[in-house]
């Protein structure tokens, strides 16, 4: 537990590499990565069940820090869980769009995307040149989920290849979510 509460990292499809800001935060700040049983063939129901299990094991409230498919997980979980009160807020970074033609076959259990307002404060960062989600689609997700939308410029998939390092700007957003609630 940190000064901002329990920080739960929700990586996307295929997990986050050691150079990814989520992995760096896990090492630097002791954040807890929600480990999935199958990173290569992600099934929405399995991922939702695992998030629920980890949240219920926490003491106090948690902040979800989701990347890519982890954003879809946050929305899907929130739509069906009776335990959304355990979440203080969510940072949603570079949502992956499982309804894109090139992703549909691998991520078929993630369609249709849940487009329902989240019951907690959230901020979504979208990139203008994300190869896995069109900028306007990221904005649509933010609107549907009731998230504050942040135009993060042309930063690719906002991952290790984006050159963010320890990404203190992202950490500041997490701290702001904790303070606002």
Note the topology.
Blueprint: E1 6-10, H1 21-29, E2 32-33, H2 44-56, E3 62-67, H3 69-80, E4 87-93, H4 101-104, E5 121-126, H5 135-145, E6 148-151, H6 168-180
Parallel strand pairs: 1-2, 1-3, 3-4, 4-5, 5-6
Just give the CATH class.
Alpha Beta
Portion in helices: 25-40%
Alpha-carbon Rg, integer: 15 Å
Shape, per Cα inertia axes:
globular
Molecular structure report:
The chain has 181 residues and is α/β, with parallel strands linked by helices. The protein has one domain: Alpha/Beta hydrolase fold, catalytic domain (Rossmann fold), CATH 3.40.50. The protein has 6 helices and 6 strands, in the order E-H-E-H-E-H-E-H-E-H-E-H. The chain has helices at residues 21-29, 44-56, 69-80, 101-104, 135-145, 168-180, and strands at residues 6-10, 32-33, 62-67, 87-93, 121-126, 148-151. The protein has a 6-stranded parallel beta sheet, sandwiched between helices. Helix 2 crosses helix 3. The longest helix has 13 residues, at 44-56. The protein is globular, with a radius of gyration of 15 Å. The model has no long low-confidence stretch (mean pLDDT 96).
């Amino acid at each position: 537990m940190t000064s901002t509460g329990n920080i739960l990292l929700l990586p996307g499809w295929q997990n986050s590499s050691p150079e990814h800001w989520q992995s760096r935060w896990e090492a630097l700040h002791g954040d807890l990565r929600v480990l999935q049983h199958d990173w290569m063939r992600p099934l929405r129901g399995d991922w939702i069940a695992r998030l629920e299990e980890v949240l219920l094991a926490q003491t106090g409230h948690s902040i979800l820090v989701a990347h890519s498919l982890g954003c879809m997980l946050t929305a899907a979980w929130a739509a069906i869980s009776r335990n959304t009160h355990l979440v203080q807020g969510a940072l949603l970074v570079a949502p992956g769009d499982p309804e894109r033609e090139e992703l549909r076959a691998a991520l078929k259990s993630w369609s249709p995307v849940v487009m329902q307002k989240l019951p907690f404060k959230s901020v979504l960062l979208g990139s203008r040149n994300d190869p896995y989600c069109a900028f306007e689609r990221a904005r649509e997700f933010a609107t549907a989920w009731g998230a504050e939308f942040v135009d993060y410029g042309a930063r690719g998939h906002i991952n290790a290849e984006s050159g963010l390092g320890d990404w203190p700007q992202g950490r500041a957003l997490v701290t702001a979510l904790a303070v606002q609630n």
